[in-house]
Amino acid sequence: MRKRLLLLFLLIFTSSIWSQEMELYTQFNGNFDYTAIGNTLNLEENENAQNCNILTSSSAMLSLDPGQQVEAAYIYWAGSGSGDFDILVNNQPVSSQREFSLLVNNLDFFAAFSDVTSIVQSEGNGAYTISDLDLLDFINPLHCNDGVNYGGWSIIIVYEDLSLPSNQINLYDGFELVGTYQNNSLEFQLDNLNVIDTQGAKIGFLAWEGDASLADGEQLKLNGNVLSNALNPPDNAFNGTNSFTGATDLYNMDLDVYEVENYINIGDTSATIELTSFADYVMVNSVVTVFNSILPDPAVNINDFTTTCNSKEISIDYTIDNFNGTDVLPSGTSVTFFADDQLLEEVFTPNDLVPGASESFQIDLAIPNSIPNNFNLEIKVNLDSQENTIISEIDPSNNITSMFINLGDVFIASPPLDMEVCDGVSNDGVEIFDFSENTNLAIGDQQNVTATYYTSFSNAENDIDPITSPNNYPNTENPQEVFIKIQSSTDPDCFVIASFFLRVYKTPIAGIPEELFSCDMGELDGISLFDLTENTSLISNNQQDVGIDYYLNQADAENGMNPISNPSSFENINNPQTIYAVIYNSNYEACYDLVSFQLSVKEIPLTEIEGDLKCDTGFNTNDFDLSEVTQQIDLSLDEEITGYFLSFTDANSFENPINAPFSYQNTENPQRIFVRVDSNQLGVCQHIHFFDISTQHCEPFIPEGFSPNGDGINDSFFITGLYDIFENFELQIFNRYGTLIYKGNNKVEAWDGTSNKGLNNVGKGLPTGTYFYILDLKDPKFGPYKGWVYLNR
């Protein structure tokens, strides 16, 4: 058995009452009545009990008459404590499907419900034993001390008997308390009644915990009228009795039925129940009402429907009938129309329908675009949005009819694609085409449609000469228009036509390219520039509508990826290097041919020739006529010197040539000069020659006299080949007495006969006479020089 602990908020709500109000659970209309069986688990009435002993099983007998068929059977079981919700009914396991609870003054009570229709229909008449209902673990001493320990069960059986009048049976349930503490009175409404006739009207109660010995102010009223019968006195309605068997030992449970035809009125749609008790706990679990009902029985059927090709409009023929009704179906009965559960329209019947009558109608419905072309159409009669009946009726099970609708909406789901292929080796403009992709595109997810292909619109429209092998079709023209017809399988007049083109493109054939050569440029690294387009005319071979791209590798060429962006000025990466050329049809680039050729970079010859050496004319420089040096180069008739350069890279790249090679002053000492020799013959690379030019110190020329008279001629003792050449020289001049009168160097002007030494002579012009010099060039190769010079004024 399954045991559940209820949540008890005892610390906060020490005197609260938790309950479930009585509500309509189910309703039956037709030739129905009900009976009930059940039994207690108490050994004696708990008000007088001396202990908490209680049974775990008990039995009761069901005895239906012939012709009485079980329509429904519901079992309720209840007791003190938090509850046992798994039991056995004739040894068949039953678990609760709905549960109820009460919490009163820290004491908890439970009730449970389950539908046992299949068991009762299978078992039929005979004994029903409820077992494995063990409450011993749930009943605590406080239940016993207060005399509220109980347990029991009841099965309510609704049966059909065609000899009965049409009745309405309502089953209400909940779990509500009336008793000595907070609730001395209880009132609740029984709604959803339809009292047509009061004859034979009755009401039944299933209640727990009533004591025969407690009758203080205990009453049961219907619409203000006290209910009683032979078993249930007016002041002690809940006294442990069973109206169905006449038993009076149904300890602490009541299974009672009252005749109430004098307490209700025709047309009543509700009734009020009142209970009072000032001493006894009474817990009401279920109430059953039985009233005569003369009711209509609306039903709906779809007779036919009409659709229009490529339209969301649908025409429905349907019938509303009252064949099984016992009363008139009034005009204004709701009829609603749904497409895939979406409400389309609501109409109302225009006329009353007497029992056995019917009326047919036609309605045009606009199906929203959000609803697919294949949908479920439903028509509902006398049902609200929650599918509850609007007016009371006998049998709501025939209030809905449905039909699967397939609108004749044929369309091109996605436009078919033009099909383009490359011609084969024959280049005859004919290839085989497979139309299956366009079939899938045009049909999409449409159902019950076919795709057929034709060579003309007229043929497609009139179903003439379809293409018999659409997945293996050789074109007959180039280009060729093909027509696809999407047609309904159920309505041949419902179709749509689209077209696409077949195109066969010529595959170009690559001509044979030449190997390209280039002279090494810049540094001697095997890298140079190539004009790949020199091979374009050879590869195209006069073919029309072609393009050519060049690639670094075969994979890129085959996939059309990463073409060389500037093929007319391409710098090779390797030497040699293979280049791949793709010639393609410029109208359809998927048609191509692939060819390759090689790039090779030629080495540049480099030859040294004899250079030129001159005397230093100042700061290690001199003027050189470079052409004189290059006269030693033996030029052939096709060769010429095209320039002089200061570096090999410049010479090889023909950049920064020397502007005045016939009078070039060196900037370094020594300095290397590069000479470029070019040939006018194709395929012959330039020849680079090089030589060195340099200067050296030469012995200076020392004059023997000068005349500083200001005539501009020989006005100073100027030694040729000295200044800015021997930059660290030192010159000393003495008079005939050996006195130093002048001292000079590269930063001092040549001696003009004026003294720059001595205490009294600095700045004085010296007289005519012979003077003596010492010249130290500070160069181990030369001097020092000693001599005389004559100063003549």
Describe the structure.
The chain contains eight helices and 50 strands. The chain is mainly beta. A six-stranded antiparallel β-sheet has the order 1-8-9-5-11-3, with helices on one face. Strands 2-12-19-14-17 form a five-stranded antiparallel β-sheet, with no helix packed on it.
Topology, element by element:
Blueprint: E1 17-18, E2 20-30, E3 32-40, E4 58-62, E5 69-80, E6 86-89, E7 92-95, E8 98-104, E9 107-115, H1 117-123, E10 126-131, H2 141-145, E11 151-160, E12 167-178, E13 185-190, E14 197-208, E15 219-222, E16 225-226, E17 253-259, E18 271-276, E19 282-292, E20 299-307, E21 313-321, E22 334-339, E23 342-348, E24 358-366, E25 374-381, E26 400-406, E27 419-422, E28 432-433, H3 436-443, E29 449-454, H4 457-462, E30 473-474, E31 480-488, E32 495-505, E33 516-519, E34 529-530, H5 536-540, E35 546-551, H6 554-559, E36 570-571, E37 577-585, E38 588-602, E39 606-608, E40 612-615, E41 623-624, H7 626-629, E42 639-645, H8 648-653, E43 664-665, E44 671-679, E45 687-696, E46 705-706, E47 730-734, E48 740-744, E49 769-776, E50 785-791
Parallel strand pairs: 27-32, 33-38, 39-45, 40-45, 46-50
Antiparallel strand pairs: 1-8, 2-12, 3-11, 4-10, 5-9, 5-11, 6-7, 6-10, 8-9, 12-19, 13-18, 14-17, 14-19, 15-16, 15-18, 20-21, 21-24, 22-23, 22-25, 25-26, 28-30, 29-31, 31-32, 34-36, 35-37, 37-38, 41-43, 42-44, 44-45, 47-48, 47-49, 49-50
